[in-house]
Amino acid sequence: MKTKSIENGRVHRIWLKVLIVVILATGIIFRFTNLDRKVYSFDESITSLRISGYTWTEMVQQDFQGRIISVEDLQQKYQQINPEKSWLDTVKGLATEEPQIPPLYFILARFWVQLFGPQVATVRSLSAWISLLVFPSIYWLCWELFRSPSAGWMAVTITAVSPFHVLYAQEARPYMMFAVLVLLSNAILLRAIALQNFAATSKWSKAVWFIYAIALTLGLYSSLLFFLVIFAHGIYVIITENFRFRQTLIAYLLASVVATIIFSPWIFVLVYNSPKIAATVGLPHLFRSSISSLKPLIIITCRNFIDTHWAGGIIKLGSSNTTDLIRLIVAALLLFAIAHSIYLLCRSTPRRVWLFVLTAIAITAIVLIAVRGIADRYLVPYILAIQLAVAYLFTVKIAAATNRQQQKLWQLALIALISSEIVSCAVSSQSQLWWNKYPSSTKYNPAVAAIVNQAKKPLVISHGGNNLTGKILSFSYLLKPEVQLLLAVKPEQVKIPEGFSDVFLYRSTELLQFELEKVQKYKITPIYKPGDVWLWRVEKQ
To answer: Going by C-beta distance under 8 Å and a sequence separation of 6 or more, which residues neighbour residue 192?
Structure first.
């Protein structure tokens, strides 16, 4: 009987390992599926603009002056590597126009494109490959926290098919680099503290603290939000050291200061160009209407696990009463499970464990709520900490179940969670649009492009400033290469030449409409109006 029980246990472990491998492989496949299918978003087109070495200002000055340029020429010039521009021009473009975005990812992306080409799938594949580093990183972090291989594999399984991780692994932006560096810096900090606390290994701690300083530096050069990670680490170290100025706190402060000093050139850039930041992104209204940020925080927390609707995940599945009730029940269950995981963590683990997870969750959430900066891409440390807590919950509940029925119940709950993640990823992988593609800028581009592409010899006219550059570049990926564009920053620059079968206005301003209708006496007819008009036809009266 005992031999049979041992054999059953061995078979169970083998099947469990096979299941983990299958889920991990599924997550990897999702990351590389249809990389070129989804709309190339506003921000992604700006990534390619930075890679090219050109700036918004140069693009507007050279090709937004009423001249006609083909889609093919526009992309070759501003969405690909140009020999007359170097990686220093990439850094300069960020420093002068988007100083709130550090340059590390964009430098790597430029070299990546030089090696493998400027195609959409290639540019996005850098994030996909970087995202694979999440698996060993989160496993290591779980080991440092829980000393449990089971918790590590559970976390790997959950993140492998997490809709958040899969979506941003397919985004040509630095979010996955940020996630990997958050995980690595967390694990390195815990390793450094552990070595510091044992005399036998304290001689190695200096080397690990040095590596920690490097991780912090790379983190800062990947995202300014890494300052929140450093701040959370500081709170954690101060509390665990009982507010005493001891060696561990001194080592943390030295590593943080070294990282900040190495990052100081970009801090100078930030200070020098602070007016540009205010003009580009707008400064947040501190401590104003913070409660209004709770709803998006709940939405983001839920769709981290279940996301089956492009505009909002489980929180917005439909409009019928039955669907509303179902989605609210599912959202409530998810929130209850997350709350229970945090409660279990606090109750059953040492202070060094639960405090680490709680500081990551609380510091990120509180600061971003306060500045009204709640967005998925900003909440990376919060999301990772939530996933750690949930992984611990399932690990403990399945392993410590008092009877077979209870164990089966928790296993079914885990299967339901993983299945919902897989379904969410499967649905989004087949969609051309999703909530992370900035729907306000891209939602109707596929339909508009289909209309333009049907014309024999079309001309597309658009008017605006720097904000237009990203919209036009994103839109151009859906147009035929031979489509001609007439772009202008002033309405009077628009002079429509002869020889085109169809002339369209794309997301026109009122000033340009007035110029064409009242001054130049053209007839303008809306032909695609899903709400606001996205496309007009221009004809002679």
So the answer is: 205, 208, 209, 212, 251
